[in-house]
Write a structure and sequence with these properties.
- By secondary structure, the chain is an alpha/beta fold.
- It has one domain: Dihydropteroate synthase-like (TIM Barrel), CATH 3.20.20.20.
- The chain is built from nine helices and ten strands.
- Helix 1 links the parallel strand 3 and strand 4.
- Helix 2 runs parallel beside helix 3 and helix 8 packs parallel to helix 9.
- The radius of gyration is 17 Å and the shape is globular.
């Protein structure tokens, strides 16, 4: 596998795992999106000062990538219009780009939002629908941004209602292999791609841990692996703790992901996750 991820003019060194910090610009995120709301507004509007401060904290703690999302993709989440996504995401991309030297990722499946985000300075697109929406693949083929292809069974609103796999590891692998092939056929260089098995996106508790246990299988695609486990129900269902009390479980799961070959850890808790990455990396060298 290449030791770099190409994100525009930026080369992200993946010879050791790196951290992606989460910035949710949503009022209904399952975790912390509402914390970035302007306190004197009756409707949700992002406070750019709070957001920039959070971004600065994450980068200071070690995050090399910040993932900005304007639409909640938690189970049962409602669809958010492109106009609303743009109003939430683009000002954040602009303020981070103007103040911090960091790779900015935007979490969206919309070609309109992707194009605007790239124009504003985003260097990576994180798509839960793996570039399957109309117009997305050709739009990104013309760009130079990094791309994360994620697996999801169904749609966020209903994905946890009907879950069916004959073999979850083989089916997720096959889907990601097909999407990587489609990207390569469209002219997207392999060095721009990473994959995400999509923990919690149309998977049962058992499915999630089967994927985590067999994460090393995905290295056969020879593409960097990104995982997002932070504070998810696959942690909460086991430890029976509120969302903001799942740090220990999240770090434990992240370490298993690192052992399985994960290259990018997407997290709300950057400092603690960086501690886990550093300890694991040193352990591998002993």
């Amino acid at each position: 596998m290449t030791s770099n991820l190409t994100a525009g003019d930026r080369q992200i060194d993946l010879s050791s795992p790196v951290c992606m910090g989460i910035i949710n610009a949503t009022p209904d995120s399952f975790s912390d999106g509402s914390e970035l709301k302007l306190s004197d507004q009756s409707i949700f509007k992002v406070d750019l000062n709070k957001t920039l401060q959070r971004a600065e904290w994450m980068v200071a703690a070690g995050a090399l990538i910040l993932d900005v999302g304007g639409e909640s993709t938690r189970p049962g989440a409602a669809t958010v219009s492109e106009e609303e996504q743009l109003s939430r995401v683009i000002p954040i991309v602009e303020v981070i780009r103007s103040n911090i030297d960091v790779c900015i990722s935007v979490d969206t499946s919309s070609a309109v939002v992707m194009k605007a985000a790239i124009a504003a300075g985003a260097e990576m697109i994180n798509d839960i629908r793996a570039l399957t929406e109309e117009g997305v693949l050709p739009a990104l083929a013309k760009s130079s941004v990094a791309i994360c292809l994620m697996h999801m069974q169904g749609e966020p609103r209903t994905m946890q209602q009907t879950i069916e796999y004959a073999n979850v590891v083989d089916e997720v692998y096959g889907f990601l292999e097909e999407r990587v092939g489609q990207c390569r056929a469209a002219g997207i260089k392999k060095e721009r791609l990473c994959i995400d098995p999509g923990f919690g996106f149309g998977k049962t508790l058992q499915n999630n841990y089967e994927l985590l246990k067999n994460l090393a299988n995905f290295s056969r695609l020879d593409i960097p692996i990104l995982i997002g486990l932070s504070r998810k129900s696959m942690i909460g269902d086991l430890v029976d703790r509120a969302v903001d009390q799942r740090l220990a479980g999240s770090i434990t799961a992240a370490v298993h992901g690192l052992i399985g070959g994960a290259n990018i850890i997407r997290t709300h808790d950057v400092a603690a996750t960086m501690d886990a990455i550093r300890v694991n990396s040193f352990f591998q060298q002993v």
